[in-house]
Amino acid sequence: MKFTKLFSFATVTALGLVLVACSTPTNQATPASSTTPSSEVMTSPSSATDSSSTNASPTTPAAPTTPAQTSNLDGTYKGNDEEDQVTLVITGTTGTWTQVEPDGEQEIKNVTIDPTNQRIIIGDDTERYFLEGNQLTIEDISEDDFNDKIVLTKQ
């Protein structure tokens, strides 16, 4: 009976140590996650760039340009998608995509902007966007072999 109690106590103690050991790396990994450096880069691009390590440098150029592009996206854009006329109206992180076919048929889709990842969701399709001056380029991220881009001009 004494051996059973001793064995049970040893087992519970060992399991407790295993739980503590397993939880320690999780707590240590949280401060090293990419979320903290990203928010620092976005709030203070100059100081974050100076103090960044080499593993953060690939994300450093994208982070400072995202807020500027988000604030400049508001407005009405027009262009063509193959034979269809496209009008995109953006306000903040939402908008509408109106596509008019040559026969006059019109399709309207809701738009959501994800400025952090430079993604635009048009209806159910997720695309990548780039803003250069008054031109908004929307690129199909699912088409690897075919370069499917739509260039819209701000009105």
Q: Give the overall average pLDDT.
A: 73
Listing every helix as H and every strand as E from the N terminus to the C terminus, the arrangement reads HHHHEEEEEEEE
Q: In DSSP terms, counting alpha (H) and pi (I) runs of 4 or more, how many helices?
A: 4
How would you sum up the major sheet? 8 strands, antiparallel, barrel
CATH C-level class of the largest domain is Mainly Beta
Sheet with the most strands: spatial strand order: 1-2-3-4-5-6-7-8
Shape: rod-shaped
Task: Give an account of the 3D structure.
Keywords: Signal. Residues 1-29 form the signal peptide. This protein is α+β, with helices and mostly antiparallel strands and 155 residues long. It has 2 domains: 2-63; 73-154, Lipocalin, CATH 2.40.128.50. Helices cover 35% and strands 35% of the residues. It contains 4 helices and 8 strands; from the N terminus they run ααααββββββββ. The chain has helices at 2-29, 35-43, 45-51, 62-72; strands at 75-81, 84-91, 94-100, 106-114, 119-122, 125-132, 135-140, 149-154. An 8-stranded antiparallel β-barrel has the order 1-2-3-4-5-6-7-8. The longest helix is centred in the first third of the chain and has 28 residues, at 2-29. The termini are far apart. Residues 26-69 have low confidence and may be disordered.
What is the topology?
Blueprint: H1 2-29, H2 35-43, H3 45-51, H4 62-72, E1 75-81, E2 84-91, E3 94-100, E4 106-114, E5 119-122, E6 125-132, E7 135-140, E8 149-154
Antiparallel strand pairs: 1-2, 1-8, 2-3, 3-4, 4-5, 5-6, 6-7, 7-8
Helix pairs in contact: 2-3, 2-4
Organism: Streptococcus zhangguiae
Signal peptide: 1-29
Pfam families: DUF3642
